[in-house]
Specification:
two-stranded antiparallel ribbon, alpha+beta, 6-stranded mixed beta sheet
């Protein structure tokens, strides 16, 4: 899949992000509400788990901002198009379209942010991950089965990226050499 640099010009404000055009269209076409004032005004919502995997990855890495009192408050930087805004237990996906306020807003369901000093972790269903881990340990799942599970839930690219970025460079070098050796014609 080819990545394009998406640039949108709104009232001479430029913002961009390295996402595909398809991802950008999915993000901007979610059924946002235009110019809501308060969280209780927002009726539209989307389940985080129903978003495409690539969109979930983008959304889970967006900057997080606490709700200031009104979505019309100038609390956002228009150079950043998408934000997550938190209010009590609710999380909202915001599209600024280049403005300094929350111009388009939709509520994200089944998305919880656990905040740690400038880092975020998302967790869709509290306790369920531990339950699944327990089942997998009880089954004594092997590598091929785990690979099948990861592929079946559409997480192959995300897992590869996370494991790759978290791996020690010696391990990556050994794996690269092994792959080259396996691909050599006999």
């Amino acid at each position: 899949m080819e990545r394009k640099k998406i640039k949108v010009m709104i009232e001479k404000k430029l913002f961009s992000d390295t996402i595909t055009e398809e991802q950008y269209n999915k993000l901007t076409g979610l059924g946002y509400e235009r110019k809501p004032a308060y969280p209780d005004d927002i009726q539209s919502s989307i389940n985080f788990n129903e978003l495409h995997e690539s969109i979930r990855e983008i959304v889970s890495n967006l900057p997080i901002v606490k709700f200031p009192g009104s979505f019309f408050d100038y609390f956002l930087d228009g150079d950043q198009q998408f934000y997550l805004v938190t209010y009590k237990e609710k999380v909202f996906l915001v599209d600024t379209q280049g403005y300094d306020y929350a111009r388009y807003v939709i509520r994200l369901k089944d998305f919880v942010i656990l905040e740690k000093e400038e880092t975020q972790q998302m967790k869709a269903h509290p306790g369920m991950a531990e339950e699944i881990i327990g089942m997998l340990k009880h089954m004594e799942v092997d590598g091929e089965t785990m690979e099948h599970i990861i592929r079946s839930v559409g997480m192959e690219e995300q897992m590869l990226r996370q494991l790759f970025l978290g791996a020690h460079s010696d391990v990556l070098q050994d794996l690269t050499l092994e792959k080259i050796e396996l691909e050599r014609p006999i």
